[in-house]
Amino acid sequence: MKRAPLRPLWLFLMLVSVLLAHLLGLDWLQGQLPLSERLTPMADPMFTRIIGPALPALPLRRPSARSEPSAGPARPASPVADETQAAIEPNQTAVEPADARQTQAAEPPAAEPSAAASEAAAAAADAWPPDSRLSYRLGGYYRGNLYGSARVQWQREAGRYQVRVDLSLALLRVSLISQGEVHADALLPRVYEEQFPWGLRRLVFDGVFVRFDNGVQQPQPPALQDTASQFVELSHRFSSGRDELKAGQQVSLWLARPQGMALWTYDVVEEELLQTPELGPVSAFHLRPRPIANPTGVISAELWFAPSLQYLPVRIRIDLGEGNFVDLMVERIEQGAAPAPETGLSPRM
Question: Between these two residues, 123 and 136, which has the higher pLDDT value?
Fold first, then answer.
């Protein structure tokens, strides 16, 4: 009696061989890249606490270079922030005694603004959040309902940062990773990768040019961000007061993606009350992108930032076109201890 051919086993072994050869090829190509163009994965940080909604921290105010007294802090946009400001304002009012004029005259005029500027620079550097991991519940639609999970992880050490976005849908895993330098008022990406089961795409930033995955180079605009770094960059802009998070405002940034780059403008359309799975109701500001000229893809993202959760992005809705979308709603926010102040952080060039 003849045995049936072992065709299924033969096909399985062939599939494993092809997959192994593919992975080895990717590993070899990665080894051929210069060190400046490779990702250097950071070890996962230790998260020591879970945070929940709290009174929103007032954005840091950058003192003017002029010596005239300020007109006073800007009024916050939300009722919760109004209560916080009301408690703080009495302690911020200082009445100068008349006999203090001689003391002020004896001091160098530039001393006070210089000290204030130094303090502001240090405060801006420390305004970057501690190591954080935001876990999201993933829903959406693409040829059927989507279910899964996602997370955004931010960490920094010795003047460097890493932002990692991981999406998990059934057997599909996608990772977006940005690495670069942390400056006092902006992130400076150096390498960005999109990792898929079938391969990866990479962007390289050298401060002068951006090199895309197809080898094309374009001049690098100032303060350019990538798909992953934009979440932390925008959060820092709002928490530091560089951009105002208020309905009717707008915020713009240059954004590089594997298909190209463009100047994106987000409109702050309204403040909404989001019902989150574990954190309960959270007030957040909804940012909607404007259409851009000559788009290189149909994907765009709407963002929600919550002042009561350190201005972090608590909801992300990615429009895939033709009625398809992915919707991320925050479930849990974990953080590590606040890092020690770093003197290596420098103003953005």
Answer: 136
Helix (H) or strand (E) holding 107: none
Residue 55 identity (one-letter amino acid): L
Task: Delimit the domains of the chain by residue range.
Answer: 132-335
Phi and psi based region of residue 34 (left: phi greater than 0; alpha: psi -120 to 50; beta: remaining): beta
Q: CA quadruple 188, 39, 260, 328: dihedral positive or negative? A: negative
In DSSP terms, 191 is beta-bridged to 179, 204
Burial profile 324-343: b = 16 or more Cβ within 10 angstroms, e = fewer: bbbbbbbbbbbbbeebeebe
pLDDT, tens digit, 9 for 90 and up, residues 276-333: 999 999 999 999 999 887 766 667 899 999 999 999 999 999 998 888 999 999 999 9
For residue 7, how far is the Cα from the chain centroid?
Answer: 50
**Long-range contact list for 127-130, CB < 8 A, 24+ apart?**
127/60, 127/236, 127/239, 127/240, 128/156, 128/182, 128/232, 128/236, 129/154, 129/232, 129/235, 129/236, 129/239, 129/310, 129/312, 129/335, 130/335, 130/336, 130/337, 130/338, 130/339
* pTM (2 d.p.): 0.72
CA distance 242 to 236: 8
How high is the mean pLDDT of the chain? 77
Residue 326 structure tokens: 């992915």
Looking at the domain covering 132-335, what would its CATH class be? mainly beta
Give yes or no for a contact between 304 and 279, defined as CB atoms under 8 angstroms apart: no
